[in-house]
Specification:
The protein is mainly α. The protein has helices spanning 21-31, 36-56, 58-61, 93-129, 131-145, 149-160, 164-190, 194-201, 206-219, 222-242, 254-261, 271-298, 300-306. Helix 4 (93-129) packs across helix 9, helix 4 runs parallel beside helix 12 and helix 12 packs across helix 13.
């Protein structure tokens, strides 16, 4: 999945001026709720909210322990007792899907939030100060960005070992350059604005200008990147588990369940691979809808072209 970089600051409306970017974004979502971009955004928010709810309350929603092995024959089709059937070990797939949402969201949150925390401030400083520091950071980030995402994540995961946190760190590594590039490009434009020149003329220091004037205006573009990178992070985490580089069995995880189910596809056992795949698709598409919708809302020029 290709993550688009948001437009340059001068191509956007003046959305924020040293005010709350989150409040501005919420206001934009409310004002555009009847447009296609608004509808996509709210659908994405609804899907994400539903999965977050499932992840938080999986203990109460799951009818069985996701690691419990039943004495009945394995690979049982969906029934009233097991709504999504059982896997090759006789574990309830419905319960594993619910707990798998928690696992996927934990990995996604660790990876994307850490990438934001690292990439955003580095991009601000690099874009504002420029010079040799900027050239060195751009070279490093471009070198990391050049690697295929899944391959780089697999190398990091292989080095760190299995586990939710380690997989999250592997995902962080591949998305730090994305946040850095977007933030730096926006900062290069915003630092030339009149109100930034005015702040400098009044004696504001570099750090004050960066965090009090530039950061707020750059931050409005971050939710777009956050949503799209989160969607890609779900796929990357599932891919690592599918390749055996993600989590340890018997942890409930959609990628692991897909890996275990692939050898039974030719035997007519469709449910053990169908339901994990559907969960991945629904969450990924929901996050993609959110990112695409936010991109159209934040970018008025693109919105006008599609109108």
């Amino acid at each position: 999945m290709t993550i688009k970089e948001p437009p340059r600051a001068e191509e956007r409306e003046t959305l924020v001026r040293s005010s709350s970017s989150i409040g501005t974004l919420v206001d934009l979502l409310l004002r555009n709720r009847r447009t296609l971009a608004g509808a996509l955004s709210w659908v994405g928010i609804g899907v994400l909210g539903a999965f977050v709810f499932v992840a938080i309350f999986a203990f109460f929603l799951a009818p069985y322990d996701p690691q419990r092995i039943f004495l009945t024959p394995p690979n049982q089709p969906p029934s009233l007792q097991h709504l999504m059937g059982t896997d090759d070990l006789g574990r309830d797939l419905f319960s594993r899907m619910l707990y798998g949402a928690r696992t996927s969201l934990e990995i996604m949150a660790i990876g994307v939030f850490l990438a934001l925390v690292i990439g955003f401030p580095i991009g601000l400083v690099s874009g504002y100060l420029g010079g040799k520091l900027d050239r060195v950071l751009v070279l490093i980030m471009d070198s990391v960005y050049a690697f295929p995402g899944l391959l780089l994540a697999a190398m990091v995961a292989l080095f760190l070992g299995k586990g939710v946190f380690n997989v999250g760190i592997a995902i962080t590594v591949i998305y730090v350059p994305t946040y850095f590039r977007v933030t730096r490009n926006q900062t290069l434009s915003v630092r030339e604005e009149t109100y930034v020149d005015a702040a400098r003329a009044l004696g504001a220091g570099s750090w004050t200008v960066i965090w009090s004037y530039i950061a707020y205006n750059v931050l409005i573009s971050i939710p777009v990147v956050f949503s799209l990178s989160a969607a890609d992070a779900i796929l990357t985490a599932a891919g690592l588990s599918f390749l055996g580089l993600g989590l340890e069995r018997p942890t409930p995880d959609w990628g692991l369940d897909l890996s275990d189910a692939q050898k039974f596809l030719t035997s007519g056992v469709w449910w053990s691979s169908f339901f994990p795949g559907v969960m991945i698709i629904i969450l990924t598409v929901g996050l993609s809808f959110l990112g695409e919708g936010l991109n159209d809302i934040v970018n008025p020029l693109l919105r006008k072209e599609r109108a």
